[in-house]
């Protein structure tokens, strides 16, 4: 696990800005945070090199891709042996519907975020991933009606 980075106010301001729009030109970032353009570029390069910035991504409208339905699923397993956990995580990684997955503590073992074309696609996913896995004790489905915050 990476050590906590030493970030000053300029670094934090830059990170706030690029998390909103990572295509903002350096000259605009420089104006916003009160640094020169070259200082902004050096800091961004350092933040990437130190693993603070781990990816530059594009957020795509899921409806345009034919996956307007967001579903969150809380999954509980029967057993959590290393081999069973690894097998379940491999299955999740192979599924394009899984956009994010967390191994968590408490009554639930995994929290999944899925993007799907509709409820028929979710039913097929649930059959393949949950119903057909004897180690899945149960799952709870939360269907998102509308996104309020985030990307």
Automatic annotation (TrEMBL):
GO CC terms of this entry: cytosol
GO biological process entries: response to amino acid
Keyword entries, A-Z: DNA-binding, Transcription, Transcription regulation
Family matches, as PROSITE patterns: HTH_ASNC_2
Keyword Aminoacyl-tRNA synthetase: no
Gene3D superfamilies, A to Z: 3.30.70.920, Winged helix-like DNA-binding domain superfamily/Winged helix DNA-binding domain
HTH asnC-type domain ranges (all copies): 7-68
Superkingdom of this protein's organism: Bacteria
InterPro entries listed in its UniProt record: AsnC-type_HTH_dom, Dimeric_a/b-barrel, Tscrpt_reg_AsnC-like, Tscrpt_reg_AsnC/Lrp_C, WH-like_DNA-bd_sf, WH_DNA-bd_sf
GO molecular function, one term: sequence-specific DNA binding
SMART domains: HTH_ASNC
Protein name (Swiss-Prot/TrEMBL): Lrp/AsnC family transcriptional regulator
Gene source species: Methylobacterium nonmethylotrophicum
